[in-house]
């Protein structure tokens, strides 16, 4: 075989191999581009999530700081002034109104900033909040914590605020005489169920209130899940699950 014929016979093979290498190189290049794009998207998502988490934490921190400031103003100034008025007052009937006003101010202060949160369990905090409501409502509070689980102050505060918000919504809107509450604490999770037997709600309107937004923010902060649903035969039910093993 002549050299010319040999070169002519391998030329198509070289062309095929050259194009194949070019195609493989193009695939590698595309794969590298796609990988970099995916990595960039992941990094941007992480930054976005980190930013959202920071905003969430900042929002709750500001809210708690403002609550504490107002509670301090009520406790240190308003209540003190009411006591001074009571001491200067000689009318028995007016004194009775002032005493009630002092108690109301104290209740508001405690609702805004729960006293001695570090020295009380979650169950005790909820019971303290329910105590004045028992004059207006027939409240049944079932609690179970057989393992004696104790939460840190941050978790207690978030769960207490959620509980407080749901009860406040019931007071404002439910038109009920009876409230059933169940708090179950196990080594894995917390289950909180709050039921009223009032007028209920429209599911499409449940997400519109500021109170519900606060519940959502605090639930996200501790990675808890919750939902509102109609109660049977009437009223509404709130259910929250906090799995603290994840």
3D architecture notes:
Helix 4 links the parallel strand 1 and strand 2. Helices cover 61% and strands 15% of the residues. The model has no long low-confidence stretch (mean pLDDT 78). The chain is α+β, with helices and mostly antiparallel strands. The chain has a five-stranded mixed beta sheet with strand order 1-2-3-5-4, with helices on one face.
Name the shape in a single word.
elongated
Number of strands: 5
What percent strand?
A: 15-25%
Distance between the termini: 75 Å
* Strand arrangement across the biggest beta sheet: 1-2-3-5-4
- Please report the number of helical segments: 5
Largest sheet: 5 strands, mixed
Rg on CA atoms, Å: 32 Å
Helical percentage: 55-70%
Low-pLDDT segments, ≥5 res: none
Q: How confident overall, as mean pLDDT?
A: 78
Q: Helix and strand string, N-terminal first?
A: HHHEHEEHEE
Q: Which class do the helix and strand fractions yield?
A: alpha+beta
Assembly state (oligomeric): single chain
Keywords: Kinase, Transferase
Protein name: Oxygen sensor histidine kinase NreB
Organism: Mesonia oceanica
EC number: 2.7.13.3
């Amino acid at each position: 075989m002549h050299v010319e014929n040999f070169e002519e016979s391998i030329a198509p093979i070289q062309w095929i191999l050259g194009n194949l290498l070019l195609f493989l190189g193009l695939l590698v290049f595309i794969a590298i581009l796609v990988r970099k794009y995916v990595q960039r998207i992941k990094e941007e998502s992480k930054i976005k999530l980190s930013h959202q988490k920071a905003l969430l934490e900042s929002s709750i921190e500001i809210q708690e700081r403002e609550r504490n400031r107002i509670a301090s103003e009520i406790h240190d100034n308003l209540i003190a002034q009411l006591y001074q008025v009571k001491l200067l007052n000689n009318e028995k009937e007016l004194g009775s109104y002032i005493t009630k006003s002092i108690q109301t101010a104290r209740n508001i202060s405690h609702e805004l900033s729960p006293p001695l949160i570090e020295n009380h369990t979650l169950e005790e905090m909820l019971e303290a909040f329910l105590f004045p409501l028992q004059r207006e409502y027939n409240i049944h509070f079932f609690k179970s914590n057989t393992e004696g689980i104790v939460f840190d102050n941050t978790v207690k505060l978030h769960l207490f605020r959620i509980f407080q918000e749901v009860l406040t919504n019931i007071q404002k809107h439910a038109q009920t005489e009876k409230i059933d509450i169940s708090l179950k604490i196990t080594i894995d999770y917390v289950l909180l169920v709050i039921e009223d037997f009032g007028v209920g709600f429209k599911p499409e309107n449940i997400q519109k209130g500021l109170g519900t937004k606060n519940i959502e923010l605090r639930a996200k902060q501790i990675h808890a899940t919750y939902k509102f649903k109609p109660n049977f035969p009437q009223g509404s039910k709130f259910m929250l699950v906090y799995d603290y093993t994840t």
